[in-house]
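Q: How do we represent a protein-ligand complex in a form that can be generated token by token?
A: Start from the inputs.
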Amino acid sequence: MIEIKNITKRFPNTPVPVLKGIDLKIEDGDFVSLVGKSGSGKSTLLYIISTLDHPTEGEVIYDSQNLKDFEQEEIYQLRNHNIGFVFQFHYLLAELTAIENILLPARKAKEVEKRRGFAMELIRIVGLEGKEHRFPGELSGGEQQRLAIARALVMEPKYLFADEPTGNLDSVNGKIIMDLFKKFNEEKGTTIIYVTHDIDFAAMARRRINLVDGVLE
Ligand SMILES: Nc1ncnc2c1ncn2[C@@H]1O[C@H](COP(=O)(O)OP(=O)(O)O)[C@@H](O)[C@H]1O
Ligand SMILES: [Mg+2]
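Then emit the structure tokens for the protein with adenosine-5'-diphosphate bound:
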């Protein structure tokens, strides 16, 4: 379980805090959508929950362990092994093929050979079979995003965080991505938190969180 306690976030040059005392519990296996107007702090909150950014005040607790008590090396371990990220802009490496992109997190963890079979299974699950040796530039936008999702899942992370993963996709490809999330949540028990502006996609979650002016509604 991830527990967020009284999170406040201020940026230099911003007089008003972006997040104002957020409390949140995310149970293992949860499937949560995070909605809110542009600028309401969704990305900031997601980055803090996912260890990519630090709160100004407050606690982030993973399975009763406060992130404040983690050594830097333990944070890397947590990130590399238990956390997957999907961004609106997928940040695939153009000079690596699809399968090499997927295996990048495994390379960092020195588990390429161990993960290769699962990477091929992911290729099939996300509908990229036969395209594993293509470069990102040879794939459509929807295919690139599915590739980014496969990369985020190759370590079989306990948690998947996604910041507007369907933001740049048409509705058909957006639905494919959301169905994939649902499948991983149901079949692998992956805890998933995603930001979306789409009302229908938000409604697919088990729980919907609405951020209004830095406060959860
Ligand atoms: N690194 C930063 N420095 C200063 N202000 C920031 C920074 N990141 C985000 N902000 C500000 O924080 C607010 C919330 O941003 P963000 O979390 O990206 O909102 P959302 O994802 O909901 O659109 C915005 O007003 C944004 O300008
Ligand atoms: Mg955002």
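DSSP finds eight helices and ten strands in the chain. The longest strand covers residues 2-9.
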